[in-house]
Specification:
The complex is a heterodimer of chains A (628) and B (315). Chain A is of the alpha/beta class. Chain A has 26 helices and 13 strands. In chain A, α13 crosses α21 and α16 crosses α18. Helices cover 32% and strands 29% of the residues of chain B. Chain B has 11 helices and 14 strands. Classes of the chains: A alpha/beta (628), B alpha/beta (315).
């Protein structure tokens, strides 16, 4: 079996069986939104938990979860789920096939359709089997024979197919074989695809045969002794759970998306997708809230941050026990991020400052203000504009307390740390490319920079745990701030470089190769200069709006960045839109903030992307020497 | 025809021991393209040199063309990314006069499409009589040249024509990568497919500079993947490598959809193709920069590896 060195690899739900997902599942309150009796659309980047949540709806996962935790979840969910996966391997095979045979228009249409139908029917069959496995054999053996007889007819399987789930499953694999033989024969010119007499199953749609199959199940088993079946409403509601909608062919995406609007008596639709979908809006377009429940798996409100931190506590506590055999709260290992605590390490004299926050004589805040004012004329100008005289500490009270702490303090501390006395802007810029932020550490910070993504936080914790490799680890020890900061910078940089290796992470614009890495760096260094080297502002730009002036070729990079988690959409109300990314607001993922030396702030000001690209025209083309 | 499940590695003596029915080489841009033909001058009833459609005026290409012409090779022009020319040519060769044929393929300077299409041709070759086709694939190793400083980003990732299957996402993907020394190729594959990964690369103890470069440039990936999923191999032990690949693929095929993505030495690619035919359901994919700059000239270091694989008719 495949062995994992790190937690990171073992947390890809796509590679886990339904049972394994249940065994590693940590309760997440988004699940409660998913199990409502309505269609749902889960949206989020890769690794945010969409597949895990969807797989946790299945009978096999719920039975296992029930067994481990004594939970009654399986009975509380008002529907029965059929999980239908897709993945990038499948998508790529279909696209390659369609390109190879592009001159045979009917052939390239019906083959993928037959594959999709076969996939749906196969997973529906698996669900039926899982359900009947919970029943008493004596009760159901005869019923299974009659039921499978019906399925054979419904799904247009050969009449001589034996009446068992296993045999039906084998017939579906035979269909797959037939499809591959057909493709090879067409490739070798042994068959003319325009003249071939395709079996009926090539022309089937998927919804009505699936409905008929589900109805047949109810007919035979609704009165069975199964507590699972009996716990559902009658007639049973079935949830068709399509994972990774963005990988499905366009026609299927449109079909499934429109199904979100339907008031189908038999089916709910639970779909997952990247954070933004582009669809033409018309009278058939489903409406978020009234037709379906949108569930967004990234951080965009304070409440989500709190829920996310609670989830991370449980997740990482459990993983530390499982993988490293230590029973410790993550906060005990990583500490809690605190700007002043960090400054005290850099400036030991601050340890004698008794009062930290108030602008009294021996306050860190006042000291930082004074130090920055001495080397940053723009900050001095800001203070003057507010009527603040640092010789009179209490004049800082002219600023709203919230303005000081929410906006000004982190900017001042960051600027003061990175700007040296009498240094030119260009020198500062060059130097900031080489140094690390000492402020990136602490459990609360780690939770924030993982941005609502379980795979990301597990990857971060794994990397940080490497620091413990050669030293003993006890529940009382804490990883040093300096080590964490350095490691978080390295992790931040690594993610940027890893994303850059994606084959779609490049596009050509006016004969220049524009890379995703270069694109992200242009935006990131623009934000960095706003905070560190441009004139002091209380609200520097930290987000961007994709305006219609940008070259449309950047859109593919933005969408890829969204999928990978490099960009975060900040307009969740409009996550389905005919304009796609145009006029939407984004920020960089917090995981990139240590690399760009950016403080995590709330309410960051936005600027148009076209303005950012013009100002920072040093988009790095054709990246050299990626450092992994 | 059925592909024999075993392969056999030979010393270079085999090149002169057999009078081949057919010899296929590539008259490419590399100095090593002509090394085997010039050094061993194998005897062949039909001798074909595939030539690339472009860059025909490059110096080394002119030299290679002259060499092959002097050795009696007939030229066939072909684009590097098409199999049609080779398939069309092989369709003109008669394999119905004898029971057994010996073919020599020097794939040192061939594109993947070219030598994979030779295997693909015989896989689907229909005969009504008893027939055995022995294909001796010979490969001349190049003197180590460091990878270019400036890496060209990944642009294309796709299955290899004829060596992929339509699948159903019932099982997760398992990605088997034959590592090369270009840093970003392997990572690009793992990023794109987001799959479980096994790694193969040439043993540093055996290959010196190249393998050390592979280890250095893939350090991050080698750190992440568990040691049990990392396999080192030697070009001197290709039969052993074949057995390992075959064993892994056979065992894991039940629970995974397997993609082999060879990014390193061509003998690994060859064995990937062979196992894809043998086991069925195994895809072979490639990742490339998509930029066609001037080709690199490589010179043979004198080491030649010969591997026999045979097709047998079912009659």
């Amino acid at each position: 079996m495949i062995e994992y060195k790190t937690l990171f690899d073992s947390f890809n739900a796509r590679n886990l069986t339904l049972k394994q997902v249940a065994q590693s599942y940590i309760e997440y309150n988004k699940y409660n939104e998913l199990i409502t009796n309505r269609s749902s659309l889960l949206m989020g980047p890769r690794g945010c938990g969409k597949t895990t949540l969807l797989k946790m709806l299945t009978i096999e996962a719920l039975i296992e979860y029930n067994r481990i935790n004594g939970s009654n979840l399986i009975y509380d969910i008002p529907f029965i789920s059929i999980y239908i996966p897709t993945d990038i391997q499948w998508k790529t095979e279909v696209e390659y096939f369609q390109n190879e045979f592009k001159n045979n228009s009917e052939f390239v249409e019906i083959i993928p359709k037959a594959l999709i139908n076969t996939n749906i029917f196969l997973h529906t069959l698996k669900t039926f089997k899982a359900l009947t496995d919970t029943l008493d054999r004596d009760e159901v053996d005869n019923k299974i024979i009659d039921f499978t007889k019906d399925l054979i007819k419904i799904w247009s399987l050969p009449n001589d197919t034996q009446n068992s789930f296993y045999r039906i499953e084998q017939e579906f694999y035979k269909r797959l074989d037939l499809i591959n033989v057909l493709i090879n024969k067409v490739r070798k010119h042994r068959i003319d695809p325009d003249k071939y007499d395709y079996p009926d199953f090539f022309y089937q749609e998927f919804l009505e045969p699936t409905r008929a199959a589900c109805k047949a199940f109810e007919h035979y088993f609704k009165d069975s002794q199964s507590t699972i079946v009996r716990s559902k409403s009658q007639p049973i509601k079935w949830a068709l759970c399509f994972d990774e909608l963005e990988l499905a062919p366009a026609w299927l995406q449109t079909t499934l998306f429109r199904y979100l609007r339907s008031k189908d008596q038999d089916f709910l639709f639970k779909l997952t997708s990247i954070p933004l979908l582009e669809f033409e809006l018309d009278e058939h377009t489903p409406s978020a809230g009234s037709d379906y429940n949108p569930i967004l798996l990234w951080l965009y409100t304070n409440k989500h941050e709190k829920d996310w931190e609670d989830f991370c506590n449980d997740l990482i506590h459990s993983k530390l026990k499982e993988k490293y055999n230590i029973n410790v709260k993550p906060e005990n290992l990583f500490g809690s991020s605190d700007l002043e605590k960090c400054l005290k390490l850099e400036n030991p004299q601050y340890n004698n400052f008794i009062i930290d926050d108030l602008p009294e004589q021996k306050s860190i805040l006042l000291d930082q203000f004074k130090e920055l004012a001495q080397k940053d004329m723009s900050f001095t100008n800001y203070l003057n504009s507010k009527g603040i005289d640092l010789k009179v500490p209490k004049s800082i009270n002219r600023l709203e307390d919230s303005e000081v702490h929410r906006k000004v303090k982190p900017i001042v501390y960051y600027r003061n740390y990175f700007i040296k006395s009498h240094e030119s802007v260009e020198s500062t810029r060059r130097r900031t490319r080489r140094i690390r932020s000492p402020f990136s550490y602490g459990w609360n910070n780690i939770c924030k920079i993982s941005d609502g993504n379980p795979r990301l936080i597990i990857g971060i914790v794994d990397s940080l745990m490497q620091l413990f490799n050669n030293s003993s680890l006890s529940s009382k020890s804490e990883i040093s701030i300096k080590s964490q900061s350095e490691q978080l910078f390295a992790i931040s940089k690594r993610y940027l470089n890893i994303w850059a290796t994606h084959p779609n992470a490049n596009t050509e614009i006016s004969s220049s190769l524009i890379t995703l890495k270069g694109f992200i760096q242009t935006i990131g260094f623009y934000f960095q200069s706003n905070i560190l080297t441009d004139d002091f502002k209380t609200n520097p730009t930290g987000t961007f709006v994709v305006d219609s002036e940008i070259n449309h070729k950047y859109i593919s990079l933005i969408l890829l960045g969204l999928y990978l988690g490099a960009f975060v959409l900040l307009d969740p109300v409009e996550n389905i839109s005919p304009e796609g990314v145009i006029n939407k607001k984004f920020r960089l993922s917090f995981i990139l903030y240590p690399y760009f030396l950016l403080p995590i702030r709330k309410e960051e000001k936005a600027n148009n992307l076209s303005t950012i690209l013009k100002k920072n025209a040093r988009i790095i083309e054709n990246q050299s020497k990626l450092e992994l | 025809m059925i592909l024999d499940k075993d392969v056999k590695q030979y010393s270079t003596e085999i090149i002169n021991k057999i009078n081949f029915d057919l010899i296929i080489v590539a008259s490419g841009y590399e100095t090593r393209a002509g090394y085997i033909a010039q050094t061993y001058n194998p005897i062949g009833r039909i001798k074909i040199a595939l030539t690339f459609d472009n860059y025909s005026s490059l110096n080394q290409r002119i030299e290679n063309d002259k060499l092959f012409s002097s050795l009696g090779y007939t030229f066939i022009k072909s684009e590097g990314d098409t199999d049609e020319t080779i398939i069309d040519f092989l369709n003109t060769v008669r394999f119905d006069e004898n029971l057994e044929y010996n073919i020599l393929v020097d794939y040192s300077s061939m594109t993947r499409i070219w030598y994979s299409s030779i295997l693909d041709f015989f896989r689907y070759f229909e005969v009504s009589h008893q027939l055995k086709i022995n294909i001796y694939f010979v490969y001349s190793k190049a003197i180590f040249v460091p990878p270019p400083e400036e890496e060209v980003p990944n642009r294309h990732i796709s299955p290899l024509k004829g060596f992929y299957n339509m699948s159903l996402p019932v099982k997760p993907t398992l990605l088997i990568i034959g590592l090369g020394y270009e840093r970003i190729r392997a990572f690009g594959l793992t990023e794109f497919l987001d799959a479980e990964t096994l790694l193969f690369y040439t043993d540093p103890a055996d290959q010196n500079k190249f393998s050390l470069e592979v280890e250095k440039n893939n350090e991050e990936l080698l750190r992440i993947v568990s040691d049990e999923n990392i396999f080192k191999y030697s070009l001197n032990k290709l039969e052993h490598l074949h057995r390992i690949i075959n064993s892994i693929c056979t065992k894991l095929n039940e629970n995974y959809r397997i993609i082999i993505a060879p990014c390193g030495p061509k003998p690994f690619t060859l064995l990937a193709l062979i196992n894809s035919i043998l086991i069925g359901g195994i895809d072979v994919w490639r990742i490339s920069p998509g930029v066609k700059g001037l080709p690199q000239n490589r010179t043979s270091n004198g080491e030649v590896f010969a591997l026999l694989t045979s097709f047998i008719s079912q009659s």
